[in-house]
Structures
1.
Amino acid sequence: MPRPYVITISSEKGGVGKTTLATNLAVYLKALCEDLPVTLLSFDNHFTVDRMFRLSADQTESHVGHLFSEENILTLIRQGEYGVQIIPSCHNLNSFKPQAPNDEQLAEVLSKVNHDGIIIIDTCPILDPYTRNALYAADRVIVPIKDAPSLANCQHLADFFTDHGISRSPLRLLPCLIDSRIRYSGPFRNSYQLLKAYAINRGYRCLEGFIAKSPKVESLATNPEGKVYSVLTHGRSTEVHLQFSHIARQIYLEYLEKGPHRMSEVSEEQRSRTQKLANREQERHQRLLDHCLCCGQQLDQSLLQKAFYAETSGRELCGFIEENCFYQMIFSDLYGEQKLGLSTATRELFRESAQRSYFLMQRQENSKIMLVRLDENGETLSQRTSDIKSRGLLRRSTPFLHNLLEHSFAENDQKNLLLLRQNTGVNGRILTEAPYARFQTVFSRARLDYEPSEDIADSTLNNPVFP
Ligand SMILES: Nc1ncnc2c1ncn2[C@@H]1O[C@H](COP(=O)(O)OP(=O)(O)OP(=O)(O)O)[C@@H](O)[C@H]1O
Ligand SMILES: [Mg+2]
């Protein structure tokens, strides 16, 4: 499947020439190879890309923000001037998409798209989630540096790669806006040589050459037509024209030589992540007992749909309790339904709220059982301790609970906790990654709140801290 080669232009310093480089690089690459698809997009809100390349007013509402939704991104691409394709910019990405994408999202979208050629991404001067996405997806990151502060800022970009455990080899620095009138005595004769020496000294790699500061180039963005003109068409007399040609040729040769390797890496990462998740889910399934923990009946798929999943704090026990058995155990064994005479409405209310709750059970001294109802965050909603001995802990009088206790807690084991949750997670499968992770989060919280520590348990054996 053809994959795109992604070039991200990034620097945390504003006004270093990112947009000028991104837009002109697109034009020069296209001029170098007419058949090469070149697509340009910007996560900045200056609309330079649109002003420079848009052929006609676009009636559709599509823009770069839609790259993060499930849409087929090929529908976002518009044909623009100079043969360059663009994806329209967005006025305010943060208000369009209040929930910031995670750093891998764009790479995952691009790795699945059937699109070849080069994609150039212009970014804004902050390491916001959109810049981070553009960095994560990049085969090549070009960082314009114009002075010592912009060079110092490169450290954050390098850290980004280290933090994500990926190689920082895509990074290349490029001295930009170099004023050739400035001369130094000594080994480094101008600011280009000085910046390059500083960069190499700090362990960065640079593209060959630099981009000079030119009044002509600066003027290309300001004219009565409100257009932004390219250096190739309107600044051929400048040295910047030669410099952009040189940079574009380097990039094109690299593209031919290495190809779009980042997207293949991302696909491979995704494949192994999916495999890891599947293995973890399989391990959870292997730990399961195959029968209902309360009545011993084999559980088929239809019963599992609404069964309650139960796990002890040490994972000695993992299994399901049939829905009816669970309610019988609560109403009859623990609440003593006959004695209390629970109304149908109370039971219905309980059933309804049980779908959104977790239940924690703990065996306490003198055959007391504590039942705590927790919300989705593990916050205690209600708590009740039942004295089973007073009802006689007999198979006959509390059969469901009796069976469960036999499975889960050793006699007098006050440390172990049992957490239960109805199997209504994503797709009704609590053992899949996200619902199971939530289950574990709630369990950790419950342990902090209810698991007695060694010292407390020993010293308060006859005086429970958690009545
Ligand atoms: N080679 C050049 N010679 C002279 N002026 C230039 C050159 N390159 C860019 N400029 C001018 O410098 C200013 C900043 O350039 P540009 O917008 O490309 O920087 P940027 O890094 O994208 O800025 P921002 O961080 O604000 O997005 C613009 O006015 C642009 O016209
Ligand atoms: Mg810019």
2.
Amino acid sequence: MKKYSIGVDLGGTKILTALVDRSSGEVLYHVKKKTKKQKGSQNIIKKLIEGIEELFAESKIRKEEISSIGVGAAGQIDRENGIIIGAPNLDCFDLDIKTTLKNYFNLPVFVGNDVEIAAIGEQKFGAGKGCNDFVCIFVGTGVGSAIVKNGRIIYGATGTAGEIGHIIVDLNGRQCACGAHGCLEAYASRSAIETRIEGALKKGRKSAIQDYLEPGKFITSSMIQKSIEREDELVLQCVTEAAEYLSGGIASVINFVNPQLIILGGGLIEAVDYFYQKTIKKARAKSLPVPAAKIEFKKAALGDYSGVIGAAFLEERVL
Ligand SMILES: [Zn+2]
């Protein structure tokens, strides 16, 4: 077995590239680049190559010591052919990552999606270590999840299983970015909370969060946390409402999938403990009594690194 792999987490704002030790899961070196998606998909390929080349230069590692390059991108992926079919957050469509990187670096290349790589990372070295039966749920700009059963990720017929963000929680509800109405993501994501807060501020409500807002910048999870620490009424109300919806979605998952463990991660969970605690308490209360008595909750343990670590192990994935 070769000692190292390269993992790449290709997100809407940044591209994180890391050299990962395959036996310990440790990130030995990493390179961070801005995605600058407005410059088009060929620029994303260019940035991917630059990041990997910089990693080689910095770590002085030889290509012969690398087992594979794994890339996880926020979007729908053709895993077999290593193509990004569609990634609205990256403005990327029909982008052949696998052939391009394989030809350039002459190494095996594996491509997956962002939630999948984070779940693999948590499974191997994080909160899911030693557990073969769990659901990972990540709450940030959107709400994503991955289902692990018998140690393997469930992909579904079209590779899109685990789209918890688009389970319907309100039949006549808010419009979601996917086009449907009442999706969980429109109620329980950081962006959903942001929309609620902004709506209230426009109507003249006052909030501590106004002290942190900057024109043109979005409301971050840390601004939400700072406002909660100041017991701000509006922010508490919007976050409690989001936890109410998220816990409903999670209770449905508990009843439907009956996992042993739910791992919660993402910016909003990491930054706002109030949101995490409220969500898991309510999710247990809303689940059927038998699974509710057994279900375990944990916070994701690898933070920003879960994606690159998981991507480095995409080569072990069984489709
Ligand atoms: Zn939706």
